[in-house]
Fold this protein.
Amino acid sequence: MVRKTIRIVNKLGMHARPATMIVKAATKYRSEFRIIKSDMEINGKSIMGVMTLAAEFGSELELVADGVDEKFLIQEIIEMFLNKFGEE
Amino acid sequence: MKKIKGNSVSIGVAIGKAKIINKHELYIKNKKILKSEIKFELSRFKEDVKFVINELDKLIQDYTYSKENRDILESHKLILQDPEFNKRISILISEDQNCLEQAINTYFTEAIDIFSNVNNKYLSHKVNDFEDVAYRLLSHIKGERKDILEDVDENSILIMENISPSFVTTVFDKNIQGLCTERGSRNSHSSIIARSMNLPMLVNTMGLLGNIKDGEDLIIDGNDGYVIISPTKSVLKKYEAICKKEKNIQKGLLSLIDKESITKDGKKIKLMSNIEIPQEIDQVLKYNSTGIGLFRTEFLFIDREDLPTEEEQYKIYKDIVEQCKPNPVTIRTIDVGGDKLSNILNITYEQNPNLGCRGIRISLQNIPIFKQQIKAILRANIHGNIKIMFPMISGVEELLKVKEIIKICSKELINAGITFNADMELGAMIEIPSAVITSDLIAEECDFLSIGTNDLIQYILAVDRDNQSISDYYKPTHPSVIRSIKLTVDNAHKHGIKVAVCGEMASEKEYVKLLLALGVDELSVSPGRLLLIKKEIINCDIAKMKLKLEKILSCKTSTDVDKLL
């Protein structure tokens, strides 16, 4: 299991497009993927789940992947966050 | 009587009854199922979701070329593929013994509830997506897909929150008076189609849905940008008169569909269409246009984050070319300012974009992208008659480069064993003053010229027409503009090639006679204006107009020219 904490750095926060990008990327992997924000925990492969996070600029998320390709999954997702989902 | 302001995206007056299209109203039975039915209900769920996903895939391929629309449909697909969605439906069916319809309805009602209450403006509009998907799925399960537009008749004015991309074709297949949407923009597909169909349409009519009941009397004033709900008798009377007049004109024009565009003194003028998106082809064919004089290809490139592939472009060009056959389709290679492509290309900030990297300059700086477009065009030319045209040509130099690239593309296609047809006419847009001045040299290198009047006027008079404070300086009849057109036509004719005008000047009826007298051979206008311009051509006596031309050419100001027109 891999755990990583990340802060949202794109200005618009976790709106529809980043949510779509995350789900699409995560679905490619076999590992389970969950995202935790304070008291909320959702399935990172569920568009409904990721969107209900409605995480805003500056808020902190914990990413948890568990499975054979967990490292690659986390790596790809982290890169998306760092690239600010292609915004700006 | 209530009046609501909106933005007109297609002019004209429409009078009718409001038909509110709330496509999410479906009657759902709350039925419990037997334990023995669970298996069947679950398999039904699988099948139906699969069907709708296939349907979405088809829509993504067929109807939407803009990145924005594709994104919406892609996100709809994700909603259906959501593992939590599958889990929850399975529980609702096998544990709570809900029938499939009820299970789906419960899930989406919960989802819509969550998003309606979320305090994030980027997410609250996701409600629409969930409503859309729920409707698509449920209507398929219930076999009621066509119901929403069932009691729409020719008296209806459709009122919608927005037209989703999956709905555009269905709406325009109906015979209606007009439409209003609470959201939307001038450049959306639905607005473009409404314009080419001459169907009055308003967008951004804020608060309309809250102020209107189904079946209420309604007027769309697409000329001034108003919706009028339950008009008083006198207002209704006023608009009936306008509407009648507009309808009579339109009826008169429709009788011209099969008439040839020949002037009174017998000169045949080729009258073609300008199109922005492939869906406009229906109107082009309906109005019997003799081909496409300007197919803008920008829609393929803007509003997206990736580039269209050669294959994607080939398919789109092929489709249009086949439908227009044997008439020509003039494809203009990409013509946008770099700012519009900043998603895809590395564009540096330009202080003066109108004089910056745009049109052919973008293509020549991004050869791989340009080559993809050229190859797609060469390949599509097998299926019909393509003419290729290049924007923002400033002189012969760009043309020579372009020709070289076409040669390279042909060679590469041969080497790859891909069939194509390099036999096509090649033309330059004349829109930069230097191209006018050297039009004799350019004509030597081309098979035709096409004058883009909008940019030509802007560059000749050095005036940005979107700048309100100087818009008075934008004068289509300025002597410099008229002389430029004359010089271009004369030079082209000396070299035995034809000249088309595809800018807005060709679409304004007061300028048609002038352009014909100047010797312009072909006009290309938006499909909605075709018949209006055809009427002008039929009523034009070029010989007579040429006598007037002497006077026009000696005018000192555009005011003097306008007096003579």
Remarks:
- The first strand of chain B starts at residue 2 and ends at 5.
- Residues 255-564 of chain B form a domain with the TIM Barrel fold (CATH 3.20.20.60).
- DSSP finds 22 helices and 16 strands in chain B.
